[in-house]
Amino acid sequence: MTIRRTLPRRPAGFSLTELMVALAIIGILATFAAPSFKNLMLGQRIKSASFDITTALILARSEALKQNGSVTLTPASGGTEWAKGWTIAGVDGATLGTQDAYDASITITGPASVVYTRSGRSSSASTVTLQVAGAVSGSTVSPRCISVGVTGQPKSVVGSC
Fold it and tell me: Quick check: 89 and 75 in contact, CB under 8 A?
């Protein structure tokens, strides 16, 4: 006759205590990650806004060459508040493109308008600059500066204008 020994079976899964400890650790790690995530999101919004402005400037320059006339890029609000969106107007005043407003975490400062002549050059005698920055206090995200030289080509760099 053979005697079999059976080992006691351990229940499968996690106990409530193990689950609560794991959730507590995840919560603690999340509190440390949240500020970094906010800066990451703000940095991406600033990059996106500077890319949108650069793209709009390239489109305005291209249209000025194509239409053989002046093309104007102006803030939608009529002042110098570029964060509320902008409009690209062609030779005959037709709207060639628009940009919707950004959320309140972004500020964009610049001139009242950027005008490209029929040669694709900026009508300004000096370099035109637009600065995209975060409007969140305590943020460590660097602003971006978009400059348009006399030749009309936009250039985006990290840092203040």
Answer: no
Per-residue pLDDT tens over the stretch 135-149: 877 778 899 999 999
- A 10 A CB-CB count for 32 gives 8
**Number of neighbouring beta carbons within 10 Å of residue 122:** 23
Whole-number Å distance between alpha carbons of 157 and 146:
7
Tokens, residue 160: 């203040």
pLDDT digits (tens, 9 = 90+) for 25-77: 999 888 887 777 888 899 999 999 999 999 999 999 999 999 999 999 999 98
Region of residue 13 (left: phi > 0; alpha: psi -120 to 50; beta: else):
left
CA distance 8 to 88: 77
**Residue pair 156/144 in contact by the 8 Å Cβ criterion:** yes
Which residues have a Cβ under 8 Å from the Cβ of 85 and sit 6 or more positions away? 75, 76, 77, 98, 99, 100, 101, 102
Task: Report the predicted TM-score, pTM, of the whole model to 2 decimal places.
Answer: 0.79
CATH class of 16-158: alpha beta
